[in-house]
């Protein structure tokens, strides 16, 4: 299960790189799809995770949650702008 968190962490790094570089929607979609898939798997195993996580695993999770919060504050305004632009072009 910890492997899923490591993949999630790497996907968040990909998302951060995609945000910092010239926007390429395919890179963003790829990272986002991978993140969504892992989060769904983790959610389905939530109870098992609560009972079996070590201190190191909890630190990894806290790091991942911190990355998600930082990326959300950076990317969400851009996504809203892109969505409003798409609506105005229709």
Count of spatially separate domains? 1
- Oligomer state of the chains in this structure: single chain
Q: Which outline best applies?
A: elongated
How far apart are the termini?
Answer: 43 Å
Number of strands: 0
C-alpha Rg (nearest Å): 15 Å
Strand content: under 5%
Q: What's the story with the biggest beta sheet?
A: none
Characterization of the model:
This protein has one domain (about 1-90). Helices cover about 90% and strands about 0% of the residues. The protein contains 4 helices and no strands. α1 (about 1-20) packs parallel to α4 (about 55-90). The termini are far apart. The mean pLDDT is about 80.
Summarize the structure.
This protein is mainly alpha-helical.
Secondary-structure map:
Blueprint: H1 2-20, H2 25-44, H3 46-52, H4 55-89
Throw out a few tags for this protein.
single chain; about 90 residues; mainly alpha; about 90% helix
């Amino acid at each position: 299960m910890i492997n899923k968190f490591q993949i999630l962490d790497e996907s968040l790094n990909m998302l951060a790189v995609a945000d910092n570089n010239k926007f390429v929607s395919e890179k963003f979609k790829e990272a986002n799809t991978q993140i969504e898939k892992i989060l769904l798997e983790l959610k389905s195993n939530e109870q098992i995770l609560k009972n079996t996580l070590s201190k190191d695993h909890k630190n990894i999770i806290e790091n991942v949650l911190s990355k998600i919060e930082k990326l959300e504050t950076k990317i969400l305004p851009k996504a809203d702008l892109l969505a409003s632009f798409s609506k105005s072009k229709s």
